[in-house]
Design brief:
291 residues, alpha+beta, Thiol Ester Dehydrase, Chain A, eleven-stranded mixed sheet, 22% helix, 30% strand, globular
Length: 291
């Protein structure tokens, strides 16, 4: 008999403390780690704040908003005793989002997550892949796959993996400058109060010279700008995080709308690169408006 899913935990200060002090349990499993959580309803006020904060137009739930829900399931799963790694030092290196049906507001969603621990790479680095599928009445609402570097290898290649293919010709789409408070504003939206994103002093406590913006803030902003440039919402978005972006810096989005590829650069280097696909079921708009 299947057990009822647990209530989807929220992100809070206590969650951060648990993440900071979590120690892997002896004998923890390295195999698939399934979890099931239930979200009573999507917070439409939070969705509106997200659209406004990231620059989305229209009234649909943005594709990247769903990561905020998946992140809660991912963190709860990684805080479980079965997850064999610490959370401190884990690096988000890749994220893929795929949209299903638009959910019925006020109805619950079930989020089923499975963790895969990949075999160590040649340099000893270990990655954990968390796959979440959110369904409502049996229909897929979204799928999210996040890859984390959970054990670093030798310095020569333990970080995010380099792209093996040459980038296509990309055209400039837009640019934005991050304020000193951007990290705190996104933390208030997402619940992710990691100290590396907040203030200079808190970032330095965690070993960084300066605070950096959340990778999913960059991916969310890129999603909003691509939708505006293409006149349709995105149905799929895959972003690989290559470098950090410090608060106060400028980020520039370039893309090939026809090929579905993009980069976000800063200071002459690529911070995020990936692929995307528009939702072809939606009518093209001459100018996809801001909310």
């Amino acid at each position: 008999m299947a057990t009822m899913p647990e209530k989807l935990p929220t992100l809070s200060a206590s969650t951060l403390l648990r993440a900071l002090f979590k120690r892997p349990a002896r004998g923890a499993s390295a195999g698939p780690i399934p979890t099931r959580y239930l979200l009573d309803r999507i917070d439409l006020e939070q969705v509106a704040r997200y659209r406004s904060g990231l620059g989305f137009g229209g009234t649909r739930i943005p594709l990247t908003y769903y990561y905020l829900l998946a992140q809660r399931a991912h963190l709860a799963t990684m805080l479980g005793a079965a997850f064999p790694f610490r959370l401190v030092g884990a690096i988000h290196v890749d994220n893929t989002l795929r949209a299903g049906v638009q959910p019925v507001t006020g109805r619950p969603l079930e989020l089923a997550t499975e963790v895969r621990i990949e075999p160590p790479s040649a340099n000893g680095a270990v990655h954990a892949v968390l796959d979440t599928q959110a369904t409502q009445d049996g229909q897929l609402v979204f799928a999210c796959s996040s890859t984390y570097l959970v054990a670093r290898g030798k310095r020569s290649g333990g970080g995010p993996r380099a792209s093996a293919t040459a980038a296509p010709a990309l055209a400039s789409v837009s640019a934005w400058r991050l304020s000193a408070a951007s990290g705190r504003h996104y933390a208030a939206l997402s619940g992710d109060w990691n100290p590396i994103h907040l203030w200079r002093w808190s970032a330095r406590l965690m070993g960084l010279k300066a605070p950096i913006i959340h990778g999913m803030h960059t991916l969310g902003r890129a999603c909003a700008e691509l939708e505006r440039a293409g006149g349709r919402p995105l149905a799929r978005l895959d972003g690989r995080f290559r470098a950090t972006i410090e608060l106060g810096a400028e980020a520039a989005l370039a893309a090939s709308l026809a090929d579905g590829r993009f980069t976000v650069g800063t200071g002459g280097r690529v911070a995020v690169e990936g692929e995307f696909a528009f939702d072809s079921s939606q009518p093209m708009q001459a100018a996809y408006p801001r909310s």
